[in-house]
Amino acid sequence: MRLAHLHLPNITPFSRVANIQQTLTSRLLSHKKHLTPNPPDPTIITFSPNPVYTTGRRDLPPSNTLNNANANTLSLPPSLEPIRQILTSPQPNTAYDPTSRVAEYHPTLRGGQTTYHGPGQLVAYTILDLRRLGLTPRCHIRLLENSVIDVLREYGVRGMVTEDPGVWVHGRKQHGGSEGGKGELPKKITAVGVHLRRHISSYGIGLNVTEEPMWWFRQIVACGLEGRETTSLQGLGGEGITVEEVAGRFVGKFVGRVNGDFACGEGATGEGIEEVYRVSEEDLLREGTE
Fold this sequence. Notes:
This protein has helices at about 15-35, 130-135, 135-155, 215, 245-260, 280-285; strands at about 1-10, 45-50, 50-55, 85-90, 105, 115, 120-130, 165-170, 185-195, 200-210, 275-280. By secondary structure, it is an alpha/beta fold. The strands form 2 sheets. It has a 7-stranded mixed sheet with strand order 8-9-10-7-2-1-11, sandwiched between helices. The chain has a 4-stranded mixed sheet with strand order 4-5-3-6, with no helix packed on it.
């Protein structure tokens, strides 16, 4: 099969990407419902959004209806009430201002709780049919995590999974613990959260590339994990690394994991990915109308 890669190089309104994702998800669901002969290609969208706090299904507010841009009218979960003053409803036509300390709030259908996305972070959404790739829901999560760990290894960073969601790296020491040893609290470098409907996946990962997201993370208890810190590739000594560079590496590692773990070898049930092609937003959206 072929895998489409849409990379949006500029800071992009989160709602714009959410709309693209919904379009692609609907195409895959329509194919499954009507059994059309040629399934749409799976797609990975990579981007950095304007500052935005999102909630998953475990942390939705009493009502997720946003009436206008006034922060006092936003229906927020308890996790975001302390920072109501810096939140606004979606602003799809507002240009990104790096000096602003205002973020949008978006409730989503992904799993998990509250997290932050924004400039300096690679967000990668995978829109694909798990069954076509031979993936169970649990394998899908592991695929995302292991793909990130493979990327981190390219930069000399050892990523790991713990009992908590996401990808972690060794952080500060406590009580005299040695580097990477007992007493050290891991720091989170990547959030993982997905949504599944009829085995069609959406959402994905948020990997911190620069230190830009750190101020925003300090305003919340990310993913409900009290006392746990976040970090970035830059914070771990990686200088001059760009989101676009990391995006390309993530897609490459994702394909390698799919082909190596699920599409080849004894007992493999998934299709292999034979080609990755870059696609523009215009061409991607046009495909569904031709």
